[in-house]
Amino acid sequence: MRARMTHWLGNLLLLAAALSATVILLEHVVFRFLLVPDDLIGNVTINSVVRYQPGTSATFRHPDGSSSRITINADGWNSTKPVYPRERTPGRLRIAVIGDSYVHGAFIDVEQGFPEVMERVLARAGIDAEVFRFGMDGAPLSQYLHVLRREVVAFKPDIVVVPLIHNDFDESYRELRTRTASSFLKLTTGANGGVVEILPSDFKPGTADALRRYRTFRYLYYKTNLYLHMKSWTSRLFWGGDEEWSEEHISSAVDIRKINDHAKNRTFARYVLAEMKALAAREGIRLAFAMDGVREAIYEGRDPQHYEVGRLNRIAREVTAELDLAFLDLQATFAEDYARRRERLEFTFDWHWNVHANRLVGEAIAGLLLDDPRLLGRLPRPIKGATLPQTAIRPN
Asked: Which of 23, 59, 182, 350 has the most C-beta neighbours closer than 10 Å?
């Protein structure tokens, strides 16, 4: 009996040693030099606003063999500017852009993001402008209001631009159980039928963050798309939620089962935009909104209203009109470009805007700022002879 136990104990120790050696080989050789995953950027909460770990950078490697690099500045935002100064330069227009991963700049180098494009286009038009971006992966429309209140107003921008994406609406009021979702401002309906804000919690690293520190985990979980197929399981196990991923229900990278309560979409969107407008009026800020186009409708030659996500474009257009806010629907911008070039506007591996689409968006929003009298007003105007590039598409 003793000999048998010694035999099994020896086998277990041998197995443990083999597993340890395998893990070390995978972590420090295979997934460090051969199959390299994306770098890791952590999150922190500063002044009640979740953001990225300040003063860090990362390289992301994509399925098509390309890579992109982000640089998180001293304020915790991906930007070409090392720090956002509080003090203003006399005569310089200051623009803040608030949003999610589209503003953050998913899958593109930091200088290729549309906020940087806006700055360059305005410079060519004779306007000395600085564009600060405040983009956070996964943030919904409700969080944009929180960021405006807690972060952006401190920088005293002249103009705030808010790009809207199709998942911004339902995720403002629908409870999500994910790694950062509880760190976003959410909305609900109170007993009297009015809108009630649910304040965000400070971000605190958990089990998922501990796992993400390992290259082996990041590669096997993210690079193989295992996270999509295990979304329902991880949502229940780690977060206590019920999120799931099913390809047949995805349209414009949105689960259409989650976005079809358009009465709620309108109610909460109007609340956020009205709150933004009231704050902007108090602070002397001018607001502009842009809405992602229904790109599937463009590629398939159909009316955007035939798509569930297309109804969100209509809501955005109607609510901004009700509140007399500057608005640009990117549908026409994207449709005209696709008709001319016949090239898609997202990556082959992801629905985010590619480099060309970011350029289009930056030029189109710059055109909106130049054309809409509610935006520049008495602010600096283009110098004589300066023009926008021909690729810039002005709003109707």
From this structure: 182
SS3 for 49-77 is EEEECCCCEEEEECCCCCEEEEEECCCCC
**26-44: per-residue pLDDT in tens?**
899 888 888 999 999 999 9
Bridge-based pairing state of the strands 159-164 and 93-99:
parallel
- CA angle 172-177-183, nearest 5°? 60
Question: What is the residue whose two structure tokens read 């407008």?
Answer: 277
> In Å, what is the CA distance from 51 to each residue of 214, 240, 249, 279?
21, 23, 30, 22
Q: Report the alpha-carbon distance of residue 273 to residue 388 in Å, rounded.
A: 29
Domains and CATH numbers, the chain: 35-371 (3.40.50.1110)
Q: Are 276 and 145 in contact (CB under 8 A)?
A: yes
pLDDT digits (tens, 9 = 90+) for 316-360: 999 999 999 999 999 999 999 999 999 999 999 999 999 999 999
Our CA angle for 229, 231, 232, nearest 5°, is 105
Position of tokens 């030029």? 363
Give helix then strand counts, H and E, for the chain.
Answer: 13, 13
Contact criterion met (CB below 8 Å) for 259 and 309: yes
**Among 163, 143, 140, 141, which Cα is nearest to 151's?**
143
With H, G, I as helix, E, B as strand and everything else as coil, classify residue 344. Answer: coil
